[in-house]
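Quick one: structure tokens for this chain, please?
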Amino acid sequence: MKALKLFLIFTFSVITLKAQNSFVIKDVRVFDGDTIIDQTSVRVANGRIVEISEAIILQKKDEIIDGKGKTLIPALSNAHVHAWSPQSLKDAAKAGVLNVMDMHGVEPYQTAMRQLKDSTDYARYYVAGYAATAPNGHGTQFGFPVPTLTKPENAVSFVENRIKANVDYIKIIVEPWKETLSLETVSEIIEETHKAKMIAVVHISRLEDAINVLNKNADGLVHIWWDKPIETSELETLTKNKSFFVIPTLLTTLKAFESMGEGSNKFLKKEDLLNEVKKMHDANIPILAGTDPPNLGINYGTDLYKEMQLLREAGLSNIEVLKTVTSNVANAFSLKETGFVKEGYLADLILIEGDVIEDINAIMNQKKVWKKGQLLKE
């Protein structure tokens, strides 16, 4: 017993010392979540960014990391996933994705997985719990029981039950290729969600449904519409009266079209989808990157880079693409102390070989990933 106590004291001491280690990334280019700092140094201590300056005074205890020829950016976030095991969170973290937003899953499993939030080698896990859907609607086909709604009066209990499950936001499904919720029911869910001071995001695939739910004050769309382009006048009206974000899931959509074969001919082409994203971006609608894994074989880690490449292809600048996987997600979902490289924030960081501002594909050249100042295992 005494030996065990000594071992635990020793282990705790090692962990504490490790957590208190400080390091300085010297002479590095920084994307801070908003802008570029061409050359500076960043000090990390006790898991936080404590100083950003060209003139950091080095101390003997500091570990010095050479940042020359490298870029430091906030850790990434994936705004649309379905994670079914801790391995999913580990795969995400290995690719520098330290925050994932789950959009429909089994609440008891999610509760257990969320306990890994402080573990270095796992992504933080934010959840919607069960998504709101109709009986036999989209989301009921995956082999686990899902609570459903049939009328607006069900909205109160549905939202109350998600609050009891400690969800982070509410997800609503409007998908007319199966049974789906009425607009009246969707409106009530959004209203109850806002009463609870949470955000409501909506799965859509048609432009008409997107406009309808946004007019009912949905906070975000978790897919882009497939069926037709939005008219300039419609977009201007929406942006004038509403504030919302969009997670286009371009990679998922294009893979879905591939799987449909000729059946996808009635939907927008790739260039049209990209153009819709550019329209929204130009209208100052925040764009968030999400990939919807594991649907269509998409992975939890490096496939987020493919979504970034598609957003670049849509016409977003490299800086704006980086925002879609960092600060835009943090702002939209109110993620605390992450998504930026700023003093006082958690040291959730990626050090990249090369200049990701000039070449978005440099995101694949990650040299080091830190979560709260702790280096992830390579």
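The two ends are 35 Å apart (CA to CA).
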